[in-house]
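Lab notebook, page 48
Experiment: co-folding of the full assembly
Goal: obtain a model of how the components sit together before planning crosslinking
Operator: M.T.
Materials (sequences as entered):
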Amino acid sequence: MPAFLFWIFASLMLVFGAGVIINRNPVASALNLVVSFLGLAVLFISLGAYFIGIIQVLVYAGAVMVLFLFIIMLLDLRAEKLRRINWIAFGGGSAVALALFIQICCVIGRFKPASQTFPPLAKSTTDDVHQIGMLLFSNYNLPFQIIGLLVLVATIGVVVLSKRELQ
Amino acid sequence: MATLGDYLVVSGMLFTIGFAGVMLRRNIIIIFMALELMLNAANLSLVAFSRFHSGTNGAPNYNAQVFLFFIITVAAAEVAVGLAIIVALYRLRQTTHVEDINSLKF
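Observation: model returned without errors.
Model output:
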């Protein structure tokens, strides 16, 4: 992928990601998050992870965002009313986030391979989904079953939590 | 061609945006969305590293993609449970503002 396409989609992702935390209206935040995740999916595809890119669009931009919007509209949340901003907390939070970013940049700056480009990929003879499926059902069979159990437990947990009376 | 460092910096910026959202916002649903941003930033750097470590003959490394499959599944389960907790909380207190929910027992 040419460098300018990378920067276009990366900045799209970052701008809309910033929109998520800047918007006052939760619906606008959720829609910003969708665009941000679409940009991220393009970045995954640019790294050759086609399957993950498609899954990202299906699961995040599809299912998870519908869930978010559904809950926002169920709770009937309006744009937040302006409250008195606690400037000390605001400044402290921004300072901590800035410090984290500076630290990340320092670590990446000292990391030697960071300035190298990616090695070329050979033309693959089998498709991505096939390879991942093979790996999933051979090497990672036990984690796959555990994840199935986890999803079952999450389903039951959600049903219990959503019951009208919590005894 | 974008380098590995470019992907890592972009991923770090996305993580910082999510972190700032968790620190600065007071609406519990938006805090939850910012958590998702942080999770996805970590995914991006994982995939970038896996692409960087592809095999000597140019064969792609699929282990990270299987990990990512697991991570996305866990994240989807987490979103479902988290939103159910938010709905239960809203039913009790009629608010999503974290400063109104500051007692453990009521």
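Interpretation: Residues 4-100 of chain B form a domain with the Helix Hairpins fold (CATH 1.10.287.3510).
Next step: discuss with group before ordering constructs.
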